[in-house]
From TrEMBL:
<dbReference type="GO" id="GO:0008236">
    <property type="term" value="F:serine-type peptidase activity"/>
</dbReference>
<dbReference type="InterPro" id="IPR029045">
    <property type="entry name" value="ClpP/crotonase-like_dom_sf"/>
</dbReference>
<protein>
    <submittedName>
        <fullName>PDZ domain-containing protein</fullName>
    </submittedName>
</protein>
<dbReference type="InterPro" id="IPR001478">
    <property type="entry name" value="PDZ"/>
</dbReference>
<keyword id="KW-0720">Serine protease</keyword>
<dbReference type="InterPro" id="IPR041489">
    <property type="entry name" value="PDZ_6"/>
</dbReference>
<keyword id="KW-0378">Hydrolase</keyword>
<dbReference type="Pfam" id="PF17820">
    <property type="entry name" value="PDZ_6"/>
</dbReference>
<dbReference type="InterPro" id="IPR055210">
    <property type="entry name" value="CtpA/B_N"/>
</dbReference>
<dbReference type="InterPro" id="IPR004447">
    <property type="entry name" value="Peptidase_S41A"/>
</dbReference>
<dbReference type="Pfam" id="PF22694">
    <property type="entry name" value="CtpB_N-like"/>
</dbReference>
<dbReference type="InterPro" id="IPR036034">
    <property type="entry name" value="PDZ_sf"/>
</dbReference>
<feature type="domain" description="PDZ">
    <location>
        <begin position="100"/>
        <end position="168"/>
    </location>
</feature>
<keyword id="KW-0645">Protease</keyword>
<dbReference type="GO" id="GO:0007165">
    <property type="term" value="P:signal transduction"/>
</dbReference>
<dbReference type="GO" id="GO:0004175">
    <property type="term" value="F:endopeptidase activity"/>
</dbReference>
<dbReference type="Pfam" id="PF03572">
    <property type="entry name" value="Peptidase_S41"/>
</dbReference>
Length: 466
Protein backbone atom coordinates (compact mmCIF):
# COMPACT_ATOMS: atom_id res chain seq x y z
CA UNK A 1 0.00 0.00 0.00
CA UNK A 2 3.07 2.22 -0.26
CA UNK A 3 2.09 5.62 -1.56
CA UNK A 4 -1.62 4.70 -1.64
CA UNK A 5 -3.99 7.25 -0.19
CA UNK A 6 -6.64 6.19 2.26
CA UNK A 7 -10.30 7.07 2.07
CA UNK A 8 -12.62 8.52 3.13
CA UNK A 9 -10.23 10.04 5.64
CA UNK A 10 -6.99 9.50 7.49
CA UNK A 11 -6.84 5.96 8.83
CA UNK A 12 -5.58 5.54 12.35
CA UNK A 13 -4.45 2.32 13.98
CA UNK A 14 -3.23 3.90 17.18
CA UNK A 15 -4.31 4.50 20.72
CA UNK A 16 -6.88 7.28 20.53
CA UNK A 17 -6.89 10.34 22.73
CA UNK A 18 -10.65 10.55 23.23
CA UNK A 19 -12.77 12.75 25.48
CA UNK A 20 -14.76 11.32 28.37
CA UNK A 21 -17.95 12.16 30.22
CA UNK A 22 -17.71 13.98 33.52
CA UNK A 23 -18.89 12.21 36.64
CA UNK A 24 -22.36 13.02 37.93
CA UNK A 25 -23.43 13.76 41.49
CA UNK A 26 -26.74 13.00 43.16
CA UNK A 27 -28.81 15.88 44.44
CA UNK A 28 -32.22 17.54 44.31
CA UNK A 29 -33.90 17.26 40.94
CA UNK A 30 -37.15 18.21 39.32
CA UNK A 31 -38.76 16.03 36.66
CA UNK A 32 -39.27 17.87 33.42
CA UNK A 33 -42.08 17.15 30.91
CA UNK A 34 -39.49 16.61 28.18
CA UNK A 35 -38.15 13.52 29.95
CA UNK A 36 -41.30 11.63 29.01
CA UNK A 37 -40.13 11.72 25.39
CA UNK A 38 -37.35 9.30 26.27
CA UNK A 39 -39.92 6.63 26.96
CA UNK A 40 -41.13 6.62 23.37
CA UNK A 41 -41.14 3.31 21.62
CA UNK A 42 -37.75 2.86 19.94
CA UNK A 43 -37.61 2.13 16.27
CA UNK A 44 -35.56 2.63 13.18
CA UNK A 45 -38.09 4.58 11.12
CA UNK A 46 -37.34 8.04 9.83
CA UNK A 47 -40.23 9.46 11.88
CA UNK A 48 -38.67 8.05 15.04
CA UNK A 49 -35.32 9.60 14.12
CA UNK A 50 -36.96 12.99 13.64
CA UNK A 51 -38.75 12.69 16.98
CA UNK A 52 -35.46 11.95 18.73
CA UNK A 53 -33.77 14.88 17.01
CA UNK A 54 -36.62 17.06 18.20
CA UNK A 55 -35.99 15.71 21.70
CA UNK A 56 -32.36 16.79 21.41
CA UNK A 57 -33.41 20.26 20.26
CA UNK A 58 -35.84 20.63 23.15
CA UNK A 59 -33.20 19.58 25.71
CA UNK A 60 -30.75 22.02 24.15
CA UNK A 61 -33.24 24.88 24.43
CA UNK A 62 -33.97 24.01 28.09
CA UNK A 63 -30.24 24.04 28.87
CA UNK A 64 -29.83 27.42 27.18
CA UNK A 65 -32.80 28.89 28.96
CA UNK A 66 -32.59 27.41 32.45
CA UNK A 67 -29.04 26.26 33.26
CA UNK A 68 -27.67 28.01 36.35
CA UNK A 69 -25.12 30.00 34.30
CA UNK A 70 -25.14 31.00 30.62
CA UNK A 71 -23.76 28.33 28.30
CA UNK A 72 -21.76 28.58 25.11
CA UNK A 73 -23.71 27.06 22.22
CA UNK A 74 -20.64 25.60 20.52
CA UNK A 75 -19.34 24.01 23.70
CA UNK A 76 -22.69 22.42 24.45
CA UNK A 77 -23.13 21.07 20.93
CA UNK A 78 -19.55 19.75 20.78
CA UNK A 79 -20.05 18.03 24.13
CA UNK A 80 -23.21 16.42 22.79
CA UNK A 81 -21.40 15.20 19.69
CA UNK A 82 -18.62 13.81 21.87
CA UNK A 83 -21.17 12.02 24.03
CA UNK A 84 -22.73 10.42 20.97
CA UNK A 85 -19.40 9.18 19.63
CA UNK A 86 -18.01 8.10 23.00
CA UNK A 87 -21.15 6.04 23.55
CA UNK A 88 -20.14 3.86 20.59
CA UNK A 89 -16.70 2.61 21.65
CA UNK A 90 -13.57 3.89 23.45
CA UNK A 91 -11.86 5.13 20.29
CA UNK A 92 -14.47 7.24 18.51
CA UNK A 93 -14.48 10.95 19.32
CA UNK A 94 -14.99 14.48 18.06
CA UNK A 95 -12.07 16.87 17.56
CA UNK A 96 -12.74 20.57 17.39
CA UNK A 97 -10.73 22.68 14.96
CA UNK A 98 -7.84 23.09 17.39
CA UNK A 99 -7.66 19.42 18.31
CA UNK A 100 -7.81 18.49 14.62
CA UNK A 101 -4.87 20.79 13.87
CA UNK A 102 -2.96 19.28 16.80
CA UNK A 103 -3.59 15.75 15.53
CA UNK A 104 -2.38 16.66 12.05
CA UNK A 105 0.79 18.07 13.58
CA UNK A 106 1.37 14.96 15.71
CA UNK A 107 0.97 12.55 12.80
CA UNK A 108 3.62 14.58 10.96
CA UNK A 109 5.95 13.84 13.87
CA UNK A 110 6.11 17.11 15.81
CA UNK A 111 3.97 18.59 18.58
CA UNK A 112 4.29 20.63 21.73
CA UNK A 113 3.88 19.50 25.32
CA UNK A 114 5.24 16.91 27.71
CA UNK A 115 5.51 13.85 25.48
CA UNK A 116 2.85 11.49 26.84
CA UNK A 117 0.43 9.21 24.99
CA UNK A 118 -2.76 9.20 27.07
CA UNK A 119 -6.25 7.76 27.25
CA UNK A 120 -8.96 7.70 29.93
CA UNK A 121 -9.78 5.74 33.05
CA UNK A 122 -12.14 6.53 35.88
CA UNK A 123 -12.23 10.24 35.15
CA UNK A 124 -8.44 10.53 35.24
CA UNK A 125 -5.86 10.87 32.50
CA UNK A 126 -4.11 7.54 32.04
CA UNK A 127 -0.61 7.28 30.64
CA UNK A 128 -0.38 4.74 27.83
CA UNK A 129 3.28 5.46 27.19
CA UNK A 130 5.77 8.30 27.66
CA UNK A 131 7.56 9.16 24.41
CA UNK A 132 11.29 8.55 24.47
CA UNK A 133 13.57 11.47 25.34
CA UNK A 134 10.80 13.89 26.33
CA UNK A 135 10.13 15.74 29.61
CA UNK A 136 7.70 13.02 30.72
CA UNK A 137 10.11 10.17 30.03
CA UNK A 138 13.03 11.94 31.73
CA UNK A 139 10.88 12.70 34.78
CA UNK A 140 10.08 9.01 35.22
CA UNK A 141 6.44 8.93 34.06
CA UNK A 142 5.46 5.30 33.46
CA UNK A 143 2.77 3.45 31.49
CA UNK A 144 -0.28 2.91 33.69
CA UNK A 145 0.22 6.10 35.73
CA UNK A 146 -2.97 8.05 36.41
CA UNK A 147 -2.64 11.83 36.22
CA UNK A 148 -5.06 13.19 38.81
CA UNK A 149 -4.10 16.88 39.05
CA UNK A 150 -2.51 19.53 36.84
CA UNK A 151 -0.99 22.43 38.74
CA UNK A 152 -2.97 21.35 41.77
CA UNK A 153 -6.34 21.28 39.98
CA UNK A 154 -8.20 18.00 39.58
CA UNK A 155 -8.63 16.69 36.04
CA UNK A 156 -12.00 15.20 36.94
CA UNK A 157 -14.76 17.09 35.21
CA UNK A 158 -12.52 17.88 32.24
CA UNK A 159 -12.78 16.17 28.89
CA UNK A 160 -9.58 14.39 27.99
CA UNK A 161 -8.93 16.92 25.25
CA UNK A 162 -9.25 19.74 27.78
CA UNK A 163 -6.73 18.01 30.02
CA UNK A 164 -4.36 17.53 27.07
CA UNK A 165 -4.72 21.21 26.20
CA UNK A 166 -3.71 22.13 29.76
CA UNK A 167 -0.61 19.96 29.51
CA UNK A 168 0.44 21.72 26.33
CA UNK A 169 1.91 25.19 26.34
CA UNK A 170 4.85 27.42 25.53
CA UNK A 171 8.27 25.85 25.36
CA UNK A 172 10.10 26.47 28.63
CA UNK A 173 6.96 26.91 30.71
CA UNK A 174 6.57 24.69 33.77
CA UNK A 175 3.72 22.48 34.91
CA UNK A 176 3.24 20.33 38.00
CA UNK A 177 1.44 17.02 37.59
CA UNK A 178 0.16 14.73 40.31
CA UNK A 179 0.32 11.02 39.58
CA UNK A 180 -1.33 8.05 41.22
CA UNK A 181 0.83 5.03 40.46
CA UNK A 182 -0.33 1.43 41.01
CA UNK A 183 1.55 0.02 43.98
CA UNK A 184 2.68 3.42 45.31
CA UNK A 185 1.43 4.33 48.78
CA UNK A 186 1.02 8.05 48.09
CA UNK A 187 0.61 10.32 45.04
CA UNK A 188 3.72 11.48 43.21
CA UNK A 189 4.33 15.14 42.45
CA UNK A 190 6.41 15.86 39.35
CA UNK A 191 7.48 19.23 37.97
CA UNK A 192 8.08 19.24 34.22
CA UNK A 193 9.19 21.87 31.74
CA UNK A 194 7.38 21.84 28.42
CA UNK A 195 9.33 21.34 25.21
CA UNK A 196 8.62 21.19 21.51
CA UNK A 197 8.24 17.45 21.09
CA UNK A 198 10.01 16.08 18.06
CA UNK A 199 10.21 12.42 18.99
CA UNK A 200 12.90 10.40 17.30
CA UNK A 201 10.54 7.77 16.01
CA UNK A 202 13.32 5.23 15.36
CA UNK A 203 16.22 4.82 17.76
CA UNK A 204 18.86 2.34 16.76
CA UNK A 205 22.22 0.99 17.76
CA UNK A 206 24.35 -2.10 17.48
CA UNK A 207 24.24 -4.71 20.21
CA UNK A 208 27.84 -5.82 20.11
CA UNK A 209 29.11 -5.78 16.55
CA UNK A 210 26.59 -8.07 14.90
CA UNK A 211 23.01 -7.49 16.12
CA UNK A 212 21.00 -4.47 15.00
CA UNK A 213 18.54 -2.99 17.49
CA UNK A 214 15.73 -0.66 16.34
CA UNK A 215 13.11 0.80 18.65
CA UNK A 216 10.01 2.32 17.04
CA UNK A 217 8.22 4.64 19.47
CA UNK A 218 5.16 5.37 17.29
CA UNK A 219 3.80 5.12 13.77
CA UNK A 220 3.69 8.59 12.25
CA UNK A 221 4.48 9.78 8.74
CA UNK A 222 8.22 9.43 9.39
CA UNK A 223 8.31 5.86 10.71
CA UNK A 224 9.01 3.83 7.58
CA UNK A 225 11.70 6.23 6.35
CA UNK A 226 13.31 6.23 9.79
CA UNK A 227 13.32 2.41 9.94
CA UNK A 228 14.90 2.12 6.51
CA UNK A 229 17.55 4.64 7.48
CA UNK A 230 18.29 2.74 10.70
CA UNK A 231 18.76 -0.60 8.94
CA UNK A 232 20.87 0.95 6.19
CA UNK A 233 23.10 2.79 8.66
CA UNK A 234 23.74 -0.29 10.78
CA UNK A 235 24.56 -2.40 7.74
CA UNK A 236 27.17 0.16 6.74
CA UNK A 237 28.54 0.31 10.28
CA UNK A 238 29.11 -3.45 10.29
CA UNK A 239 30.41 -3.73 6.75
CA UNK A 240 27.16 -5.44 5.80
CA UNK A 241 27.81 -8.19 8.37
CA UNK A 242 24.69 -7.87 10.50
CA UNK A 243 23.54 -11.24 11.79
CA UNK A 244 20.05 -10.30 12.96
CA UNK A 245 17.59 -7.53 13.85
CA UNK A 246 15.68 -6.82 17.06
CA UNK A 247 12.59 -4.71 16.34
CA UNK A 248 11.43 -3.22 19.63
CA UNK A 249 7.73 -2.30 19.64
CA UNK A 250 7.29 -2.29 23.41
CA UNK A 251 5.03 0.51 24.69
CA UNK A 252 4.48 1.69 21.11
CA UNK A 253 0.83 2.85 21.16
CA UNK A 254 0.34 2.74 17.41
CA UNK A 255 -0.49 5.41 14.85
CA UNK A 256 -1.05 5.38 11.10
CA UNK A 257 -2.27 2.22 9.40
CA UNK A 258 -0.34 2.86 6.19
CA UNK A 259 2.90 3.08 8.18
CA UNK A 260 2.19 -0.24 9.88
CA UNK A 261 1.64 -1.76 6.42
CA UNK A 262 4.88 -0.29 5.05
CA UNK A 263 6.96 -1.38 8.05
CA UNK A 264 5.60 -4.92 7.73
CA UNK A 265 6.28 -4.85 3.98
CA UNK A 266 9.91 -3.93 4.69
CA UNK A 267 10.45 -7.44 6.12
CA UNK A 268 8.17 -9.47 3.83
CA UNK A 269 8.65 -10.63 0.24
CA UNK A 270 5.08 -11.65 -0.45
CA UNK A 271 1.74 -12.48 1.10
CA UNK A 272 -0.98 -10.64 2.95
CA UNK A 273 -0.02 -8.08 5.58
CA UNK A 274 -3.40 -7.11 7.04
CA UNK A 275 -7.03 -6.92 6.02
CA UNK A 276 -9.88 -4.77 7.27
CA UNK A 277 -13.55 -5.67 7.38
CA UNK A 278 -16.03 -2.83 7.49
CA UNK A 279 -19.78 -2.67 7.94
CA UNK A 280 -20.26 -2.75 4.15
CA UNK A 281 -18.38 -5.46 2.31
CA UNK A 282 -17.33 -3.07 -0.46
CA UNK A 283 -15.46 -0.94 2.09
CA UNK A 284 -13.27 -3.83 3.26
CA UNK A 285 -9.63 -3.78 2.17
CA UNK A 286 -6.59 -6.01 1.97
CA UNK A 287 -2.90 -5.13 1.77
CA UNK A 288 -0.24 -7.45 0.35
CA UNK A 289 3.54 -7.30 0.54
CA UNK A 290 5.66 -6.40 -2.46
CA UNK A 291 8.98 -8.07 -3.28
CA UNK A 292 11.97 -6.69 -1.41
CA UNK A 293 13.24 -7.29 2.14
CA UNK A 294 15.37 -4.44 3.47
CA UNK A 295 17.23 -6.84 5.79
CA UNK A 296 18.07 -9.39 3.06
CA UNK A 297 16.13 -11.96 5.07
CA UNK A 298 18.08 -11.66 8.31
CA UNK A 299 16.63 -13.31 11.40
CA UNK A 300 14.27 -10.94 13.25
CA UNK A 301 13.00 -10.84 16.82
CA UNK A 302 10.05 -8.53 17.60
CA UNK A 303 9.70 -7.35 21.22
CA UNK A 304 6.19 -6.51 22.49
CA UNK A 305 4.49 -5.83 25.82
CA UNK A 306 1.14 -4.66 27.21
CA UNK A 307 1.75 -1.16 25.85
CA UNK A 308 2.18 -2.38 22.26
CA UNK A 309 -1.09 -1.46 20.58
CA UNK A 310 -2.84 -1.40 17.23
CA UNK A 311 -0.28 -0.48 14.53
CA UNK A 312 2.37 -2.27 16.60
CA UNK A 313 0.11 -5.31 16.76
CA UNK A 314 -0.45 -5.20 13.00
CA UNK A 315 3.31 -5.44 12.43
CA UNK A 316 3.84 -8.10 15.10
CA UNK A 317 0.87 -10.12 13.84
CA UNK A 318 1.94 -9.98 10.19
CA UNK A 319 5.52 -11.06 10.92
CA UNK A 320 4.33 -13.73 13.36
CA UNK A 321 1.74 -15.23 11.00
CA UNK A 322 4.28 -15.47 8.16
CA UNK A 323 6.89 -16.82 10.59
CA UNK A 324 9.14 -14.04 9.38
CA UNK A 325 10.05 -13.13 12.96
CA UNK A 326 9.93 -14.61 16.43
CA UNK A 327 7.74 -12.49 18.70
CA UNK A 328 9.07 -12.25 22.24
CA UNK A 329 7.99 -10.47 25.42
CA UNK A 330 4.52 -10.15 26.99
CA UNK A 331 0.99 -10.15 25.55
CA UNK A 332 0.11 -6.94 23.71
CA UNK A 333 -2.74 -4.46 24.32
CA UNK A 334 -5.38 -5.97 22.02
CA UNK A 335 -6.72 -3.08 19.94
CA UNK A 336 -8.03 -4.60 16.72
CA UNK A 337 -10.06 -1.71 15.31
CA UNK A 338 -9.33 0.98 12.74
CA UNK A 339 -10.38 4.60 13.08
CA UNK A 340 -11.05 6.87 10.12
CA UNK A 341 -10.62 10.59 10.67
CA UNK A 342 -13.28 12.47 8.72
CA UNK A 343 -12.73 16.24 8.46
CA UNK A 344 -15.77 18.47 8.81
CA UNK A 345 -14.95 21.72 6.95
CA UNK A 346 -14.68 24.58 9.42
CA UNK A 347 -15.51 22.38 12.40
CA UNK A 348 -12.66 20.01 13.06
CA UNK A 349 -13.15 16.29 12.44
CA UNK A 350 -14.67 13.13 13.82
CA UNK A 351 -12.63 10.04 14.55
CA UNK A 352 -14.88 7.08 13.90
CA UNK A 353 -14.28 3.36 14.26
CA UNK A 354 -15.02 2.08 10.77
CA UNK A 355 -13.46 -1.40 10.57
CA UNK A 356 -11.81 -4.27 12.38
CA UNK A 357 -8.45 -5.47 11.20
CA UNK A 358 -7.26 -9.06 10.84
CA UNK A 359 -3.82 -10.61 10.69
CA UNK A 360 -2.85 -12.65 7.57
CA UNK A 361 -4.22 -15.85 9.12
CA UNK A 362 -7.61 -14.16 9.56
CA UNK A 363 -7.46 -13.73 13.33
CA UNK A 364 -8.72 -10.67 15.13
CA UNK A 365 -6.65 -9.56 18.09
CA UNK A 366 -9.45 -7.30 19.38
CA UNK A 367 -9.55 -7.68 23.16
CA UNK A 368 -7.04 -10.54 22.98
CA UNK A 369 -3.74 -9.06 21.87
CA UNK A 370 -0.79 -10.77 20.26
CA UNK A 371 0.49 -13.68 22.33
CA UNK A 372 4.30 -13.85 22.02
CA UNK A 373 5.91 -16.98 20.62
CA UNK A 374 8.29 -16.89 23.59
CA UNK A 375 7.12 -15.24 26.80
CA UNK A 376 9.75 -13.15 28.57
CA UNK A 377 8.62 -10.86 31.37
CA UNK A 378 10.34 -7.64 32.31
CA UNK A 379 10.38 -8.36 36.04
CA UNK A 380 9.34 -10.92 38.63
CA UNK A 381 6.61 -8.54 39.79
CA UNK A 382 5.02 -8.71 36.34
CA UNK A 383 4.54 -12.47 36.69
CA UNK A 384 2.40 -11.98 39.80
CA UNK A 385 0.36 -9.06 38.50
CA UNK A 386 -3.02 -9.80 36.88
CA UNK A 387 -3.43 -8.85 33.24
CA UNK A 388 -4.91 -5.37 33.20
CA UNK A 389 -4.90 -2.13 31.29
CA UNK A 390 -5.83 -3.89 28.06
CA UNK A 391 -8.37 -3.12 25.37
CA UNK A 392 -10.80 -5.65 26.81
CA UNK A 393 -10.94 -3.62 30.05
CA UNK A 394 -12.14 -0.45 28.30
CA UNK A 395 -15.79 0.44 28.58
CA UNK A 396 -17.81 -0.48 25.48
CA UNK A 397 -14.83 -2.00 23.68
CA UNK A 398 -15.76 -4.05 20.61
CA UNK A 399 -16.16 -7.77 21.08
CA UNK A 400 -13.82 -10.19 19.38
CA UNK A 401 -15.46 -12.00 16.45
CA UNK A 402 -13.03 -14.87 15.87
CA UNK A 403 -15.91 -17.24 16.62
CA UNK A 404 -17.70 -16.13 13.44
CA UNK A 405 -15.11 -17.54 11.03
CA UNK A 406 -12.46 -20.24 10.83
CA UNK A 407 -9.02 -19.17 12.03
CA UNK A 408 -6.35 -21.72 11.09
CA UNK A 409 -3.59 -22.44 13.61
CA UNK A 410 -0.23 -20.77 13.05
CA UNK A 411 2.48 -22.87 11.42
CA UNK A 412 5.21 -24.16 13.74
CA UNK A 413 8.26 -22.01 14.44
CA UNK A 414 10.71 -24.62 13.16
CA UNK A 415 13.54 -23.34 15.33
CA UNK A 416 16.71 -25.34 16.02
CA UNK A 417 16.20 -27.95 18.74
CA UNK A 418 16.66 -26.68 22.28
CA UNK A 419 16.89 -23.02 21.27
CA UNK A 420 13.67 -21.89 22.98
CA UNK A 421 14.65 -23.74 26.17
CA UNK A 422 17.64 -21.43 26.58
CA UNK A 423 15.41 -18.38 26.97
CA UNK A 424 14.62 -17.39 30.56
CA UNK A 425 11.09 -16.21 31.29
CA UNK A 426 11.97 -14.26 34.46
CA UNK A 427 15.01 -12.28 35.61
CA UNK A 428 17.24 -14.15 38.08
CA UNK A 429 17.30 -13.30 41.77
CA UNK A 430 19.23 -10.11 42.43
CA UNK A 431 18.90 -8.84 38.86
CA UNK A 432 19.25 -5.03 38.67
CA UNK A 433 16.11 -2.94 38.32
CA UNK A 434 15.44 -1.76 34.79
CA UNK A 435 17.04 1.58 33.94
CA UNK A 436 16.13 2.84 30.43
CA UNK A 437 19.54 4.52 30.16
CA UNK A 438 21.31 1.19 30.77
CA UNK A 439 20.51 -1.50 28.17
CA UNK A 440 22.28 -4.12 30.28
CA UNK A 441 19.42 -3.86 32.81
CA UNK A 442 16.77 -4.57 30.13
CA UNK A 443 16.10 -8.26 30.75
CA UNK A 444 13.79 -8.74 27.76
CA UNK A 445 16.30 -7.13 25.43
CA UNK A 446 19.17 -9.21 26.78
CA UNK A 447 17.19 -12.42 26.32
CA UNK A 448 16.28 -11.39 22.77
CA UNK A 449 19.92 -10.64 21.96
CA UNK A 450 21.18 -13.98 23.33
CA UNK A 451 18.41 -15.85 21.53
CA UNK A 452 19.13 -14.11 18.23
CA UNK A 453 22.86 -14.84 18.43
CA UNK A 454 22.19 -18.50 19.15
CA UNK A 455 19.66 -18.64 16.31
CA UNK A 456 22.02 -17.10 13.75
CA UNK A 457 24.86 -19.34 14.94
CA UNK A 458 22.68 -22.38 14.29
CA UNK A 459 21.68 -21.11 10.82
CA UNK A 460 24.56 -18.84 9.73
CA UNK A 461 23.85 -18.75 5.99
CA UNK A 462 20.12 -18.13 6.01
CA UNK A 463 19.62 -15.81 3.04
CA UNK A 464 17.24 -17.53 0.67
CA UNK A 465 14.11 -15.51 -0.02
CA UNK A 466 10.87 -16.96 1.26
Amino acid sequence: MKGQSMKPGLRMAGVVVAAFAAGATLGPWVASPIMSAVAQERGSSRDETYRLLNLFGEVFERVKADYVTPVDDREVIESAINGMLQGLDPHSSYMNARAWRDMQVSTRGEFGGLGIEVSQEGGYVKVISPIDDTPAARAGVKPGDLITHLNGESVQGLTLQEAVDKMRGERGSAIKITIRRPGAESPLELSLTREVIRPQVARFRLEGSDIGYVRLSSFNEQTDVALRNAISTMRKQTGDKLRGIILDLRSNPGGLLDQAVQVSDDFLERGEIVSTRARRQQDSQRWNAKPGDITDNLHVVVLINGGSASASEIVAGALQDHRRAVVMGAKSFGKGSVQTVMPIPGNGAIRLTTARYYTPSGRSIQGLGITPDIEVLASKEESNAPLRDREADLRKSLRNDNDTHVVPPLPPLNLPAGLVDRVQKLPPEGAPAFDPTKPETDFQLQQATSFLRAWTAAEPQRRAAR
